[in-house]
From TrEMBL:
Annotated TM spans: 6-23
Keywords, comma-separated and alphabetical: Membrane, Transmembrane, Transmembrane helix
Species name: Ruminiclostridium cellulolyticum (strain ATCC 35319 / DSM 5812 / JCM 6584 / H10) (Clostridium cellulolyticum)
Protein name per its UniProtKB record: Uncharacterized protein
Amino acid sequence: MYFVGSVIVIAFFTFSYTFFFKIKKYIYSKKCSWYNTKNNTNFTCKYILKM
């Protein structure tokens, strides 16, 4: 029972982590497009999106 619980917890954490990361990436890409229109520094954007 303990093993099953730990597996569920691990699965939940990996799912939430990837989900959060995708949202973060999406927000960063939106910010990057906005920054690129303001000034031409997309180095940080490329660096962030690579992660």
